[in-house]
Design brief:
alpha/beta, six-stranded mixed sheet
């Protein structure tokens, strides 16, 4: 029996066909790539527009932030300056207003300063709100640009050496009179600007020589020809370094022969033809010793003082006279800033002559909390420096004196020995004889030998040449003894290389980072050139006249009180 054929209804066949057709169409649509890149490109383009907009907003933000920070830095610096007389907050706000920015509020500006105005710190902590142009599409309507800046004017530890010219020319044209108030104003400004206990100052006044004073020189191993003055003769090599060499043994203990020995400058008068006064061994009013007498305390170095009143009184008592040895002045000024001087400071503190707050001074050159400054002033140029030759700074002289005569200037008391004749020229008799005046029968008094130190305490070198040598040997021999002669017998004159010595010590000092300021006070061209070359930079040199000396010192004080941007 044959199976029966199954006949589906037409409606069922239609539904199946439609489903098949739909599936085929879907497969064709899925596999068809026509137009797909256009859609992706449109998507990428939109995203690029968004990102470009974000970049524009970020660039605007960074530009505003930079502008805001720079304004904050400048405003803080100006407001922190100690010489700024306006209210610090007003200064900050004015800077922002002129830049077209919103001025900070009072609580965004912090001002701190010392009780005496010796330091000031200004902090600006502000921000600027910037509306966005594109980022608001992402819900970010504004960006806030911050700025934080702190400026401080504060001097930490400061060591200063004031090297002041007191040569004879400072008596002219009121120079010394003009110098004194200028130097005292400088002292006041520095003490007003630096926190108490952080400023130490040395004053070195110089002419032909520098009197270190016994307080300093007893810590050095020196020759001992006399005790009448306290200057030493530096060798040429000493100017290649700021350092000096104090004794290695404590005060009161035997000296170590291995220590450097400095030559004590002779106590003599190389300028005039004069004698000591009849009243005693002190020089007459018109005399001028090469090194100031030890008793002349106003000419000794003022070392490591932290007292403005002491320093100002010292300046008030300065007197002028003599030649100009800028090299020796700068050498001592540099030496008192050099750490090699610390054993002297330690000793002076133990004696109560230096404040014990300076026990660590002179500080190391690499101490970042310290500023070392040397200020050198001169109204001239280097001139002749005199030294006694070795044969005439100690030992017995050719001269004998009769103590029956009270006045050292009375020629009749002297007898001069001539080894070639083995006789004495007796000035009272005006002739040669075997005995000095006082040793022969019938003479008054006794003849006593004089050391060369005794001779130079009684009379100047030129008086010896004019009144002792000339009457006996004539003018030719006299000229050999006078200090003005290039081949003087008793003295030697140092002149030609003093500029080179000055430049050498200036260079050695600058190499340690010491700031050197120099002032040419109505100085000639050679002196100006030397002082300009000595300064740390051309801007640190001042050429002034008259009352402008005060302006120079004020400018130096302002320069020392430099600003530091600390944040």
């Amino acid at each position: 029996m044959m199976p029966k054929a199954i006949v589906q209804p037409a409606r069922t066949r239609t539904r199946r066909w439609r489903r098949h057709a739909a599936a085929v169409a879907l497969r064709r649509f899925r596999d068809d790539e026509d137009g797909s890149m256009l859609i992706f490109g449109l998507f990428c383009f939109v995203m690029m527009l968004y990102l470009a907009g974000v970049a524009v907003d970020l660039m605007r933000y960074e530009d505003n932030r930079t502008r805001l920070q720079n304004t904050a830095d400048r405003a803080a610096l100006a407001a922190a300056e100690l010489n700024q007389k306006l209210d610090a907050r007003d200064v900050v706000r004015d800077y922002f207003a002129k830049e077209g920015l919103t001025p900070p509020r009072n609580e965004q500006i912090t001002v701190r300063q010392g009780a005496f105005g010796e330091w000031r710190t200004v902090t600006v902590d502000t921000d600027e709100t910037m509306p966005t142009w594109f980022m608001n599409l992402f819900g970010i309507d504004t960006l806030v640009a911050p700025a934080l800046s702190t400026a401080e004017e504060r001097i930490g530890n400061v060591e200063i050496s004031l090297v002041l010219d007191v040569s004879g020319s400072m008596n002219s044209n009121n120079r010394l009179a003009n110098l004194k108030p200028a130097a005292k104003d400088f002292i006041d400004t520095m003490f007003d600007s630096v926190e108490a206990g952080r400023l130490s100052m040395n004053i070195i006044n110089y002419s032909t020589q520098v009197s270190a004073g016994n307080d300093i020189l007893k810590y050095y191993r020196i020759t001992n020809e006399h005790t009448d003055s306290r200057c030493i003769d530096f060798d040429l090599a000493d100017y290649n370094t700021a350092a000096t060499a104090p004794k290695s043994t404590p005060q009161g203990f035997p000296e170590d022969p291995a220590d450097r020995q400095y030559q004590l400058n002779g106590h003599f008068e190389p300028f005039n033809s004069t004698t000591a006064s009849a009243a005693g061994p002190d020089w007459a009013a018109n005399a001028l010793t090469n090194c100031p007498p030890a008793a002349a305390s106003q000419r000794n170095i003022k070392v490591m003082s932290g007292s403005r009143s002491e320093l100002k009184a010292y300046v008030d008592n300065m007197t002028a006279g003599g030649n100009t040895s800028i090299d020796i002045g700068v050498k001592w000024g540099a030496a008192l800033l050099d750490p090699s001087f610390s054993p002297v400071v330690t000793g002076l503190i133990a004696e109560g002559k230096v404040d014990n707050g300076f026990a660590d001074r002179p500080l190391a050159y690499n101490n970042r909390e310290a500023i070392k400054v040397l200020v050198v002033m001169s109204d001239g140029e280097t001139t002749t420096e005199y030294r006694l030759r070795d044969a005439y700074d100690h030992g017995n002289s050719r001269l004998k004196a009769n103590p029956a005569y009270a006045n050292p200037g009375d020629i009749n008391q002297y007898s001069l020995y001539d080894s070639s004749r083995n006789k004495y020229w007796v000035f009272r008799l005006g002739r040669w004889r075997n005995e000095p005046w006082g040793d022969a029968i019938g003479d008054t008094g006794d003849a006593l030998p004089l050391t060369w130190q005794d001779v130079w305490k009684r009379m100047s070198v030129n008086w010896f040449a004019d009144r002792i040598i000339s009457p006996v040997y004539g003018s030719t021999e006299r000229n050999k003894w006078r200090t003005s002669a290039s081949n003087a017998i008793a003295t030697t004159a140092i002149y030609s290389d003093k500029d080179a010595r000055t430049q050498a010590i200036c260079t050695a000092t600058k190499n340690h980072g010491v700031k050197i300021y120099s002032i040419g006070f109505e100085a000639p061209s050679r002196g100006i050139t030397l002082l300009r070359n000595c300064a740390t930079a051309p801007a640190n040199f001042y050429s002034v006249s008259g009352l402008d000396i005060k302006t120079a010192f004020a400018s130096i004080a302002s320069s020392i009180n430099k600003l530091r941007l600390t944040q």
